[in-house]
Design brief:
With 476 residues, the chain is of the alpha+beta class. The chain contains 13 helices and 18 strands. It starts with 8 loop residues before the first helix and ends in a 20-residue tail after the last helix. It binds 4-amino-1,4-dioxobutan-2-aminium adenosine-5'-monophosphate and magnesium ion (MG).
Length: 476
């Protein structure tokens, strides 16, 4: 076969120099034929669009034609011609075809309309489907949007460790990291495992968040963000939870609560706009095949001002709704952590917009959140202390961002650490920020996959990460 420099399909489809000889390489999406002519839809992943290859049976040997089946990998030399068919400007009249990789007839993606559940069992191949190709190209684009946004705002990308000896959220839902022989553990007289002979000489785990190290960086570089995998061993088998997920965590010195909310809102809108500006082919496909309201919803988010709602006001609204006959499965008294049914009611029924909820009861939030000066009044009664936490709640997704202004007072922070029984010896380095020139600061964590859920209209978080890790599942 003549050696011609390959053109990606995304580029070949833009070319109008008809009559030129081109080479494309890719995988067969479908092949059909009639009256001695065959048509191949070829895709190389560069775009959701296929290029059509047209050939005459007579010009190719039978053995080659037999190998051109769905899933096979081809290299095609041919003439770029204007296409008579609707929906495509050009096609390629094949002159030479080399089958780079034949496809076994057990190929699991031959049938159209396979269920999401089934496709998860072939996650090693599902990126070759239209939907997953679209999702993963959008996922890439969202990562680029994130870096672009923060870089342009003067934030520095700061790398925080994945292996940690501290438990940031104090939730005890971490995966341990060890090289110890689990069949022969060294224990003290109380039966407690001794870690001094372990790889790091102490108990270590995979991080649940880069925030604490991010705070160190913010008090040095001013504005930083982390963007990496985080791990949670919570047994949450829901369409919104993964055991391994990616989180974006900006942390900013000298920011207050209103400014933090501005940043959250501006950042999400920038990412959504990026998708609309850069991923339209994929969004149109998803809008047609997965979620008919997708593009409209994305556009409306950009134009909508997010609601800013103190927790206490949210409780009042929910209690009022209950009085008027609304039924919830879980109670919602002041002090309760809102269940997703409550969040959905506020976002999808009451306001019909994204909601940034703030000033939560101290007891249901992490130790590092800044304590509000005043106690809130709920239905005329003074309640317990609140903190400057912010959760961004999105339609269909629920919580997409969790963040807060941080407690910068050394004494108050120590008070929280002690009253919650958080081991002090693990926290000394974190406390140093409050000792050596402490400053007001804050930040948030955006669940990357939850953003991808929103931007793609997919329904299950397992379908927006290439290889999902959930309780009982770590295949591929
Ligand atoms: O609300 P979270 O737990 O906040 C933190 O980890 C803070 N340290 C962030 C910060 O202030 N720097 O998690 C942040 C976000 C959530 O809003 C959610 O979008 C996502 O991370 N998230 C998950 N996504 C997928 N699977 C899980 N198990 C998740 N847990 C949290
Ligand atoms: Mg949270």
């Amino acid at each position: 076969m003549e050696k011609i420099r390959r053109t990606k399909i995304i580029d070949v489809l833009k070319r109008t120099d008809f009559g030129e000889t081109v080479n494309v390489k890719g995988w067969v999406r479908s092949k059909r034929g009639s009256k001695g002519i065959f048509f191949i839809a070829l895709n190389d992943g560069s775009t959701i669009k296929n290029v059509q290859i047209v050939g005459e049976d007579a010009n190719f040997d039978e053995a080659t034609i037999k190998l051109i089946t769905t899933g096979a990998c081809l290299s095609v030399n041919g003439t770029l011609v204007e296409s008579p068919a609707a929906g495509q400007a050009s096609e390629i009249q094949a002159k030479e075809i080399e089958v780079l990789g034949a496809c076994d007839n057990t190929y699991p993606l031959q049938k159209k309309g396979a269920s999401w559940e089934y496709l998860r069992t072939v996650a090693h191949l599902r990126p070759r489907t239209n939907t997953f190709g679209a999702v993963f190209r959008i996922r890439h684009n969202m990562a680029m949007a994130i870096h672009s946004y923060f870089h342009q705002k003067g934030f520095f990308y700061f790398h925080t460790p994945l292996i940690t000896a501290s438990d940031c959220e104090g939730a005890g839902q971490m995966f341990q990291v060890t090289t110890k022989n689990l069949y022969d553990l060294k224990k003290d007289e109380n039966g407690q495992i001794i870690y001094d002979d372990d790889f790091f000489g102490k108990q270590t785990s995979l991080t649940v968040s880069g925030q604490l190290e991010g705070e160190l960086a913010a008090t040095a570089l001013g504005s930083i963000y982390t963007f990496g995998p985080t791990f949670r061993a919570e047994n949450s088998n829901t369409p919104r939870h993964l055991a391994e997920f990616w989180m974006v965590e900006p942390e900013v010195a000298f920011i207050d609560l209103p400014e933090l909310m501005d940043l959250e809102e501006d950042f999400i809108k920038y990412c959504v706009k990026w998708a609309l500006d850069n991923c339209m082919d994929d969004l149109e496909f998803l809008n047609k095949m997965v979620d008919k309201g997708l593009i409209e919803r994305l556009k409306s988010v950009i134009d909508t001002e997010f609601v800013r709602l103190p927790y206490t006001k949210g409780i009042e609204i929910l209690q009022e709704a209950i009085k008027n006959g609304k039924k919830f499965e879980f109670p919602c008294n002041w002090g309760d952590d809102l269940a997703s049914e409550h969040e959905r009611f506020l976002v999808e029924e009451y306001f019909k917009k994204p909601v940034i909820m703030t000033n939560y009861p101290k007891a249901i939030k992490a130790f590092y959140m800044k304590i509000d000066d005043e106690k809130p009044v709920c239905n005329g009664q003074v309640m317990e202390e609140t903190v400057q936490g912010t959760d961004v709640l999105f339609p269909q997704i629920g919580e997409i961002i969790g963040g807060s202004v941080r407690e910068e007072s050394y004494d108050k922070l120590i008070g929280e650490i002690e009253s919650r029984g958080i081991p002090m010896k693990d926290m000394w380095w974190y406390l140093d920020t409050r000792k050596f020139g402490t400053c007001p600061h804050g930040g948030f964590g955006l669940g990357f996959e939850r953003l991808i859920l929103f931007v793609t209209g997919m329904q299950n978080i397992r379908d927006v990460i290439p290889f999902p890790r959930t309780p009982g599942k770590a295949d591929f």
